[in-house]
Design a protein that fits this description.
two-stranded antiparallel sheet; 6 helices; mainly alpha
């Protein structure tokens, strides 16, 4: 990419700026359910079958284990997840999504799709598909779920 456009023309700056804008919109929509985007991310990781120990989730989400504990505490309080001792290793806490957690995750997905529509409102079908595909390639490279 050429330096001619400066910082605002870089993909990194645009993604960071747009991510903040649309991330705030998503956060506002799920706040009604007493959730933040990281809560939704933790529930999505559990639904995807990602390792369910708090330590494994912290590594997968690329956050401090103490943050996963705080997120899990909140989600347990909402009845969205359950925390159990691993019978094979009593020191390990295993998290599982509850039925209520699945419903909350469904509502988060609805909110995300609403924001998706805002993001892609001015894009035609081809551009929308290209954006989706390009972001999928980047997400996959970073080890993030793509489906």
């Amino acid at each position: 990419m050429s330096d001619a456009g400066g910082l605002p023309s870089t993909v990194a700056f645009r993604l960071a700026t747009l991510g903040a804008i649309y991330g705030d919109r998503f956060a506002a929509r799920i706040a009604a359910h007493d959730l933040k985007p990281k809560h939704a991310g933790l529930m999505a990781a559990l639904e995807a079958g990602v390792a369910a120990s708090q330590q494994d989730l912290a590594a997968r989400m690329r956050v401090a284990p103490s943050l996963v504990v705080a997120l899990a505490d909140h989600l347990v309080g909402l009845g969205a997840i359950e925390r159990r001792r691993d019978p094979a290793d009593r020191r390990r806490q295993v998290l599982t999504l509850t039925g209520h957690g699945r419903e909350l995750l469904r509502r988060c997905a609805e909110a995300a799709r609403e924001v998706d529509e805002e993001i892609a409102a001015d894009l035609g079908g081809d551009r929308r598909a290209a954006l989706h595909e390009a972001l999928g390639v980047i997400a996959e490279r970073e080890g993030l779920p793509t489906a």
